[in-house]
DNA sequence: CGTATTTAGCCTTTTTCGAGAGCAATTTTC
DNA sequence: GAAAATTGCTCTCGAAAAAGGCTAAATACG
């Protein structure tokens, strides 16, 4: 399962993407409207800022805002930022590869093969799920 | 990522499946050959026994053995046993459904749609990955 | 300049995971 | 029936996740 951090991050990002280029949004607004504990949200937004996805402004009229285009932020990146690898096993991860300590022969490991396939399918779906794509899906759903 | 418990469980099950119907196997043998901490493995095997997948015999000549056919034990079931839901969000799980507390409208949630698709693909792959299927894959790999 | 607003950083608490120690219970064998 | 072999059970410990509290720093506005 996703960590709360990652889940909240995605919700906050979608929220900000809906108001892209409309100026800074208050943490407290996001917290209230998305039902995210405020203190927790603060550290999440800070992480997203340090990752170069958001920027912030202090003082009156301040808040957080998206600096990447909603088309360019996808769920795979956000999940990796907060929860690390997406794959189920370290030996099939893309950016965090590590041998399974207990593994005897990676080359002939049938378990690895299965999870390699799972990872590929998963990452493919997540990569094409940008903030823009998610917002589009929501519009389609509410137009029905 | 999989918990160590689930990963070790899968390795132990594949080990036992390779010796299906050849009598009880010692915990210590599995522990050594699969590089799994023995005490940890003990509790894992016990869980698998309580789940009706393994059975055990005490005393000399004792150990653990598979009571389900290797074709009938798949990775989705084992993962759910140890790590709970396979899906990334509680609102798209099959057997453990729960509303996301912070969610505003599940019916129009674009995030949910994405993770619903991921779950479906993932579970499909894991369901068809039985112990027998994994062993077959390993044989194909080592015959190359 | 000073005050209100808002983000930034640090410290504490509670729960769960990974691992191991030690002892108890059960079965076989002699 | 005693001893050896093996599984079964209960604690404990450290690290990480999920919060929440409190104070500092920066900025805007009158």
Automatic annotation (TrEMBL), chains A, B:
Write down what this protein is called.
Rrf2 family transcriptional regulator
- List the record's Gene Ontology CC terms alphabetically: cytosol
Question: Which NCBIfam families does the entry mention?
Answer: rrf2_super
Which keywords does UniProt give here?
Answer: DNA-binding
Q: Does DNA-binding count among this protein's keywords?
A: yes
Q: Which GO terms describe its molecular function?
A: DNA binding; DNA-binding transcription factor activity
A Pfam family recorded for this sequence: Rrf2
């Amino acid at each position: 399962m996703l960590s709360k951090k990652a889940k909240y991050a995605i919700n906050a990002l979608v929220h900000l993407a809906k108001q892209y280029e409309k100026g800074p949004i208050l943490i407290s607004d996001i917290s209230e409207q998305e039902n995210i504990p405020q203190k927790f949200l603060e550290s999440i937004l800070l992480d997203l800022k340090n990752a170069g996805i958001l920027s912030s402004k202090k003082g009156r009229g301040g808040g957080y805002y998206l600096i990447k285009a909603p088309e360019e932020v996808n769920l795979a990146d956000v999940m990796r930022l907060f929860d690390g690898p997406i794959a189920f096993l370290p030996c099939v991860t893309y950016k965090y590869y590590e041998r399974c300590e207990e593994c005897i022969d990676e080359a002939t490991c049938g378990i690895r093969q299965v999870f390699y396939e799972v990872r590929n399918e998963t990452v493919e779906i997540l990569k094409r799920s940008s903030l823009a794509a998610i917002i589009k899906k929501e519009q389609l759903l509410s137009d029905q």
